[in-house]
Amino acid sequence: MPNWIDRVRTPTAARLSVAVVAFAGFVLSVLIFYPGIMTYDAKYVYADISKHVLGDWQSPVMTVLWAWIDPLAPGPASMFLLMAALYWIGFAVVGLALASRSGWLAVLSPGLAFMPPALVFVGILWRDVLFAVTWLTASAIAFAAPGRVSVIRISMQGLGLLLCVFGVLLRPNALIAAPILATYIIWPARFDGKRLLMAFVPAIVIFFGLVQFVYYGVLGATRQHPLHSVMVFDLGGISHFSKENQFPVSWNDAEMKLLLDGCYQPTQWDIYWRLQPCDFVMRKVEKEEKLFGTPALTKAWILAIVRHPIAYLEHRAAFMLNFLAGENLTMWVVDIEKPTETVFADRPLFSIVENIHEALKTTPLFRAGSWLIACVAACLLCWRARNTPEGAFVIGVCGSAAVYVLSLFLVGVASDFRYGYWSVLATIAGAVVGLSLLHLGRGELRLRKLREPATQPT
Predict the structure, then answer these.
(1) Is the pTM value of this prediction over 0.85?
(2) 310-343 burial, b if ≥16 CB within 10 A, otherwise e?
(3) Which contacts qualify for 111-117: CB closer than 8 Å, 24 or more apart?
């Protein structure tokens, strides 16, 4: 009688194994993190529900979504359960799609989802985590679509595209990366670079228009000018590297000394906003001079870049280097209601996860740069297989993740590891699918190429 090792080699057994591993992972996530770890950002979003306020500093779409699902499990639990479900569904769908090709690779998909750099964030209520698991699920659904009957395939691609759009509405700074993922979802059977180039700019325009329409047209969100946080950070950085004040305000001698030499750190813009002794910057810009959110600040930002492009690049390079290679904030464990205490301190399972995180957080596993390199490497390694569904998936997913991380060179204002979380999930899913190319073997890949129309000599 064949043992379980033999049975898992059949597609049916592989699918069952994938379902069991993914469900076990979801249950484990609930045991570790339920009802979810509330962060300050999540607290502000949740508070807007009861106040019936929608602003664009945090995504108003996340506020509306949370208000819809909150009655199911009031408080952080509803959002946590949604995030955890999307996380395990995404990896499970990838595994199910691989089941007919390789049972072991199918099980490996949800299996690798237990990796610490991915798992330890599942229970933390950050919109960056929600964004990443949304795009994971979108790409997984698209990967499972080819080969289905037309109605089902189009429905799956439509759902994937909606999730891609939802991700942009969660994180508008994903505008530059979204066209890559959207192009893959629409054409998941093969990656066509020319098609992407033709669609890239129009897709950005469409996504930008959707953000404006949904935020301010449909939801009526208040403009809180989050983009101006980038400008304040840049003006502070350019002032530091040029040794000249770039803000459209004047400072006393003590403030000027701090601005040029004492305040700047390539870590976060909060230094100028709420951290002493440099919070005087935003106090004057926003409260005294009332320039935050006005064209005057935008004009000052543009002039600073034009006059001091080297200082701007020095500032942006310093930030990016810190984001990619620095020892930044990783797992959030602070109880925001009792800031001196750790959440879930009495839970053995959570303590195990926290200890694993503490042991690994200084390693390359918790450096955004490691996952950026992995994404780029995956795209390069699979480039020759771009005309296969597997190669298209790797390039579409890892390519979008790499561009998303690189886009933070221009718009990043904080260097927490969570801002690169999409690249972690993309690399894990892409690695499994990329390995399936080896399983296909040269024979099947050659057969696929023979089936493509040949180019006739002229």
Answers:
(1) yes
(2) ebbebbbebbbebbbeeebebbbbeeeeeeeeeb
(3) 111/21, 112/428, 112/431, 112/432, 113/22, 113/25, 113/87, 113/88, 113/428, 114/25, 115/365, 115/428, 116/353, 116/356, 116/357, 116/360, 116/365, 117/360, 117/365, 117/366, 117/371, 117/424
The whole-angstrom separation of Cα 177 and Cα 168 is 9
Ramachandran angles phi, psi of 46, nearest 5°: -65, -35
Task: Say how many C-beta atoms besides its own lie within 10 A of residue 140's C-beta.
Answer: 28
DSSP-derived 3-state class of residue 263: coil
Alpha carbon distances (Å) from 441 to 6, 134, 144, 191 = 21, 32, 20, 19
As a whole number of Å, the CA-based R_g of the chain is 23
User: What is the mean predicted confidence (pLDDT) over 212-223?
Assistant: 96
Q: How many CB atoms lie within 10 A of CB 250?
A: 10
Are 236 and 301 spatial neighbours (Cβ–Cβ below 8 Å)?
Answer: no
Q: How many CB atoms lie within 10 A of CB 65?
A: 19
- Rounded Cα distance between 133 and 249, Å, is 42
Alpha-carbon span 229 to 268, nearest angstrom: 10
Average pLDDT, the chain: 93
What is the reported pLDDT for 52?
87
Cβ contact 370:328 at 8 Å: no
| Calpha distance 32→35 (Å, rounded) | 9
Q: What is the pLDDT of residues 265-297, one digit of tens each?
A: 999 999 999 999 999 999 999 999 999 999 999
